Amino acid sequence: MSAAKSPPLADVLRYAAAAWQLFRGGRSIDRALTAALADRADLRPPVQDALYTAIRHLAASERFVERLAARAPAADVAALLSVALAQLQRGRHAGHTVVDQAVTAAQWSPSTRVASRFINAVLRNFLRQQATLVAEVQADETVRYNLPAWWIERLRAEYPREWMAIADSQLQQPPLMLRVNSRRTTANAYLVRLAEEAIGATLVGAQAVWMHQPRPVAEIPGFADGDVSVQDAGAQLAAPWLGIQPGMRVLDACAAPGGKTTHLAELGAGDLTALEVDSSRAIRIADNLRRCQLSARVIIGDAARLETWLPAGGHASFDRIVLDAPCTASGIVRRHPDIPWLRRPADVVQLTTVQRELLDALWPLLNVGGRLLHVVC
Ligand SMILES: C[S@@+](CC[C@H](N)C(=O)[O-])C[C@H]1O[C@@H](n2cnc3c(N)ncnc32)[C@H](O)[C@@H]1O
């Protein structure tokens, strides 16, 4: 069997640059890729990789362009430069190949085509001065941590002692963490199964297995059958904290894509309601329940407005409530490097207001002696 042929790097750069522009316009990585690859979904894996690489080098690449270009380039040219400069910094392809392929990618549209000599010059100058330029920009904290200045200021103010360690940890590649479905197997039995397939893994929590080499979910043994789900080890602490007992009424109030819903069901939550405001995301809860062979009531509604999901004049009460509220997601930057660049300072206040409304609406639904867990990432 022959290995799949890699697409031309020029195509990857061109589509990554298109996604980059959408991302800089405010779209998440996922939405930017879906829109940019509408006619070339087959290119998603390499383009996604190029976009992540570009975002992980965002602050440095923008600084390099400021130093190497006499004036700020147009948005589409800047996008192509950012994705190409990130490839040069990563060093997986020969420098001259990246430059050549970026110039080829520039031929795609009239506005980048007229700038192809400029693109060529900036990239070649970067290669010539790479060591000096890299050393110079590292002195800048926004480059060192690849974070906007306002984000660093807030982090420093909130965590005066730990902020550098936090920012450093967010530069690391995130591990692939699995949660073993206790309804179907045990963590130890699953580790044996991985060992039999020569897959390196370590138990790092009651049900948490760290798979040493990241791989697509389709290649994770037992994933399709619901033996395991992908979930960070920290997130795996939420459901057990609730101490689910048989017969309890449980509400997962912001549930998609269902990571905690499925965990609650695995722990024996029989009377389980999963509530989600976004109907397209709610589909993923149902998909995950089906894959794990578990069940719950999936309802589309706004947890802050009871009338949108409770029967008219109806009342509901729960013994356990999980409120995994919309948040800045500042704790999952290493998995989602786009987050600091998509957020604005005003979002912090706006999101805490939303969290307050959710808490005010849900608290009265908790039975006396019940537990409500407010989670943010
Ligand atoms: C952090 S994610 C939840 C992750 C999920 N609990 C898990 O473990 O897989 C937050 C979710 O809350 C949903 N959401 C936001 N506002 C909501 C609201 N007012 N009512 C219900 N769901 C809401 C979002 O669409 C998003 O899917």
Describe the model.
With 377 residues, the chain is an alpha/beta fold. 48% of the residues lie in helices and 12% in strands. It has helices at residues 9-24, 29-36, 44-56, 58-68, 75-90, 95-106, 110-113, 116-137, 141-144, 149-158, 163-169, 187-196, 238-241, 259-266, 279-291, 339-342, 345-362, and strands at 176-180, 201-203, 208-211, 228-230, 249-252, 271-276, 297-300, 318-324, 366-375. The strands form 2 sheets. The chain has a 5-stranded parallel sheet with strand order 7-6-5-8-9, sandwiched between helices. It has a 4-stranded antiparallel sheet with strand order 2-3-1-4, covered by helices on one side. Helix 1 crosses helix 2 (29-36) and helix 6 packs across helix 8. The longest helix has 22 residues, at 116-137. The protein is globular and about 70 Å long. The relative contact order is 0.08. S-adenosylmethionine binds at residues 254-260, 275-278, 281, 302-304, 324, 326, 358, 377.
A few lines on this structure:
The protein is built from 17 helices and nine strands.
Keywords:
single chain; 377 residues; alpha/beta; 5-stranded parallel β-sheet; 4-stranded antiparallel β-sheet; 17 helices; 48% helix; binds S-adenosylmethionine
